Amino acid sequence: MVTFCVVFVRLGRWQWDRAQSPTGDWQNLGYALQWPLFAVVLVVAWARFLWLEQHRGPEMGSPAAEILEAETESETVLSSPTPPPVPRRPAYPPIREDDPDDELAAYNAYLARLAEQDRC
Q1: How far apart are CA 118 and CA 49, in angstroms?
Q2: Is 51 inside a domain boundary?
Q3: What is the pLDDT along the chain (120 residues), one digit of tens a residue?
Q4: Of 14, 17, 24, 75, which shows the fewest CB atoms inside 10 Å?
Q5: Which residue segment(s) compose the domain that 15 sits in?
Q6: Residue 107 lies in a domain
Q7: 2-20 and 26-54 helices cross at what angle (nearest 10)?
Q8: Taking the model in full, what pTM does it have?
């Protein structure tokens, strides 16, 4: 990670020097600002990764996870019972194959007319 940050900062410095040269332009200036930004994003992502590793829960199958699961189950049993979840219906009823679909039939007829016109 440190190596990449150093490389990104060096590339930014190189682009800054290119932007200051007679052949440099706005694109080099943009890259000169962009490369150090990549280094900052890399450091922030690395810090976030370390934080998530430090604060993650126990892995499944480990003794700590089994103890936590057992405690959760015992609390659930002792607490007031909750009704079972109600199964949800799909938003749209399923379409049966034998149902006539007027829109689909009209569209297929339109496509058939277009195909017939292309053959002529």
Answers
A1: 59
A2: yes
A3: 899 999 999 999 999 999 999 988 999 999 999 999 999 999 999 999 999 988 886 665 566 666 666 666 655 555 566 777 777 776 777 667 776 778 888 999 999 999 999 887
A4: 75
A5: 2-58
A6: no
A7: 170
A8: 0.47
